[in-house]
Design goal:
By secondary structure, the chain is α/β, with parallel strands linked by helices. It contains 11 helices and 10 strands. It has 2 domains: 78 residues, Chemotaxis Receptor Methyltransferase Cher, domain 1 (Orthogonal Bundle), CATH 1.10.155.10; 188 residues, Rossmann fold. The strands form 2 sheets. It has a 7-stranded mixed β-sheet. Strands 3-5-4 form a 3-stranded antiparallel β-sheet. α7 links the parallel β1 and β2.
């Protein structure tokens, strides 16, 4: 029976063990993402299209190209290996808590400044930050306030999609009809919907690598959504990231993480509020 290694070597573009190890080291160094052996199939399938486009004959050739031309090629590599699974109001309990618990608390605490800052730290194609903006608008608590939602992602392709604010009809299926009516405009008969200007006005999109030092943001964020990100990082990288996020928040600020993620053993700067929600302690 052929080994996995033999199978990879016989494919259209051979991938040697040393090629995959180079890609793994590059991924963790530049993005923090840990690529296990189980991700080899995914990496192959996502990069093979780029290798074809560059008219190369092997992963070894592509690795040399990456090594010699990082400024030109690294963004293509990063866009290929990042995962962008998202939807509007995904993990809905976070948005329910935002409307019913978090925003009322912040409105009381920030009454003097009448300012609210929220960060969507891995915004993908925009559904998360737009859902945050819709929740703020629907709460009717921040009328006349200075509200800003910063939406960042490492992937330039998904940011272009997010900035456009246009989605196929199937992306909003499952949402309540009144939410779609309030926050989207139907553009044409093909079913393309556009986020309404009132929602778009609250959100700013920027490219950001969470491994970048220092981060360019100067202000503090009252709420941070960093969901389904750290599952791709080592424990040491998770610990570093959560502590850096804490530095970007005031005491009492709120952090939401993904349903399969935990802060346990990683940072004592947050207290658990249950259901992957935390509040900064110090």
């Amino acid at each position: 029976m052929s080994s996995d290694r033999d199978d990879f070597l016989r494919r259209e573009f051979p991938m040697r063990a040393e090629d995959y190890e180079f890609l793994r080291r590059l991924a963790v160094r530049t993005t923090g993402i840990e690529l296990s052996d189980a991700k080899k199939e995914m990496v192959y399938s996502r990069l093979v299209r780029r290798i074809r486009a560059l008219h190369m004959d092997s992963f070894a050739t592509y690795c040399r190209h990456l090594d010699q031309n990082p400024a030109a090629e690294l963004s293509f590599f990063v866009n290929a290996i990042t995962t962008n699974l998202t939807s509007f109001f995904r993990e809905g309990h976070h948005f329910e808590a935002l409307r019913t618990t978090i925003l009322p608390d912040l409105v009381r605490r920030n009454a003097a400044s009448r300012k609210l800052r929220i960060w969507s730290a891995a915004c993908s194609t925009g559904e998360e930050p737009y859902s945050i903006a819709m929740s703020v608008l629907d709460s009717n608590l921040c009328s006349g306030w200075d509200v800003r939602v910063l939406a960042t992602d490492i992937d330039s392709n998904v940011l272009a999609h997010a900035t456009a604010g246009r989605y196929a009809l199937e992306r909003v299926q499952g949402l309540a009809a009144d939410i779609v009516q309030r926050h989207f405009t139907r553009l044409d008969q093909d079913g393309i919907l556009e986020v309404r200007p009132a929602v778009e006005a609250l959100v700013s999109f920027r490219q950001l690598n969470l491994m970048q030092e220092p981060w360019p943001m100067t202000g503090l964020f009252d709420v941070v959504f960093c969901r389904n990100v750290v599952i791709y990082f080592s424990k040491d990288t998770q610990r570093l990231l959560f502590n850096r996020i804490a530095e970007q928040m005031p005491v009492g600020g709120y952090l939401c993480i993904g349903h399969s993620e935990t802060m346990h053993g990683l940072s004592d700067r947050f207290e658990s509020l249950g259901r992957t929600m935390y509040r900064k302690r110090f």
